[in-house]
Structures
1.
Amino acid sequence: MHFIRKNLGIIGCGNIGRTIIRAIYEGKIDCKVIGVFDVNKDGYDALSDEIKRQLKFFDDFDKFIKEDANLILEAASQQAVKEYAVNVLNHDKNLMLMSVGALVDKNLSDVTKIYLMK
C-alpha cells in the first residue's frame, strides 16, 4: 500500500495545535508542517526556538492557504471552522476538523456541498 506523505497546514496554535506540532517535530506523526495560521502569535511564541526556526507563522489566511499544504488541520475553534472551512475546500485542500461541533451549524451546508461535488 502506498501512502502520500502529508504536507500539513495548521489553523490554530493554541494548546491542541502546539501539542500536534510538538508531536510532529518529535517524530511521533509522519508528516511535514508547512505552516501555522493564527490571529494571535502568543501560542507560536510559546513553541521552542528550534521548532520556530523550522515553522512558518502566518497571521494572514490568504498567504497561508497558498502554501503547499495538501491537508489543513483546524485546531482552533468552532468559529474558525465557520470562517475558514469553505475557503480551505475551495482551494482544493483536504480538511480535518478538531472542532467538529461546528458541523451542527446549518450555515455550514456549503462544506457538505463542496465535499459532495468532488
2.
Amino acid sequence: MINDASGVMPTIRVVRKLFRLLPLFLVATLFGNHLAAAGTADVSIEGHGWGHGVGLSQYGAKALGADGATYEQILHRYFTGVSLVPLAAAAPASFLVTEVQPLWVGLLEGQSGVSFTVSEDSAQLCFDDLDSCVVTAVPGETYRFGYDKPDRCFFQRKQRLGGFARISPTGSCDASVRPVTSATKLFLPIKARSYSDGTLRLRQSSTTNGIHVVFQIGLESYLKGVAVAPDSWSGASLMAHVVTVRSTAAWNALERGKVEVLDPGRRADCHCNLYDSDPDSVFRGATEEDTHPNWIAAVDSTRSQVMRTSDGVALGMYSSSSGGVTENYADVF
C-alpha cells in the first residue's frame, strides 16, 4: 500500500483517484518521448453552420431577438462598422431614390410565351414601343402573350370553351401588363404566384429567340414579397432581417444599374437588375404578402432604412446559421 509524505495511509477516495490517473500515466510514458521529438503540433478545430459565414446569421438573429435584443443591436452584432440610415442618405440622387419603381425583377427567361390571369381589379395590355394599349383586361380573364413570327408578338384571350383567340394585331415583343389601380393583381400559372403593386414587363432577349418576363416594382413593395424568416419570430429579429434584405437588394440593384443602362450580358440574360431567386432573395410577390403579416409590419416599421458603410449602401449578406460566429464583416467588405 502507498503511503503519503506524512506516513499516513491514503484514504480509499485518494486511491480511487490515483487509479483513474493510471491510464494517463501510461499514455505519457509510452508516447511522451515521441511527442517531444515531434515538437508542438498545430491544433485545428472544424465545424460549420448552414451558409457562407458572412453577415447575418438568421438563427442567431432569432435567438438574440428572443432574448430581448433590439433589431439595431442584432444588426450591429453581425455588421461591424455600419450605421443605419435612410436609403436617400446612403445613395443620394440614385435611381433607387428618384424612381417610383426602380427594380426590374426577373421572373422567367427565354420563354416562347407566357400566360397570366387578372385576378383582382383590371389591367391594360400594351405594346411598349408605341406606348399603345390594345385592351383592358378584367378579373377572371386569362391571356397569353407570345410570338406570331420572329421579332413580332401578339396578345390572345382564353376562350370559355378552351383555346386562345387573338385580340391584338401583331406588334413588338416588348410589351407590358399595366395595373389600372394599386389593387390590380396578376396570377402567373407557370410560377404559381400572384403579383401586385407593379407592372409586368415582357422583353425579347437580344441574343435568343425568347421572351423575358420581368416584374417592375418599388423597393418597399418588393421587400413585402421576400419574407426570408418565419412570421413566428420576434419583431426585432424580423426587422433585422428586413434591413439586411433591403440593404442587399439596394446594393445589388445599384451595382447592376437601372434597366436603361444594363450591360449587354445582363440585358440578354434576364433584362433585370434583380432575380427572383438565387443569387438574390426569393421573391414570391403578393403570394408571400398574404401569409406573412408580421413580416409586412417589419417592412413598414423600418421603411427605407439600410445599412451604410463609408462607401455607401452595405451589402447585407445573410445565411441560415453560422456555428456560433460569423466572419467580421469589416474584414471582408
3.
Amino acid sequence: MAIRMAIRYRKELLEMESQKIKELKEDILNSLYHILGQHNKCAAYFCKRKNNEENRVLEAEKSGLMTEMLMLPITCASSLKVS
C-alpha cells in the first residue's frame, strides 16, 4: 500500500520525469525502513511518525532478515530507468 501511495503521489507532481523517478526510487528503497519503524529518510508526504513506535531495523539487520527483505524493493527500484 505504501508503495502504491508513493507512485500515485510522484505521478501527480509537476516535475521532470527523471526527478519523479529518482524520488520514487528513494521512496521504494526506504519503504522497508519505514515499515520497521525507522523514519529519518521518510518524505513528509509519506510518513506520519508515531512517537512510541519501536525501531526494529537493527534487530532485522542482526538476524540477516534485513538483507533478504531488501531484495524485493531493490529489485523493483532497479527496474526504474531514467531515460
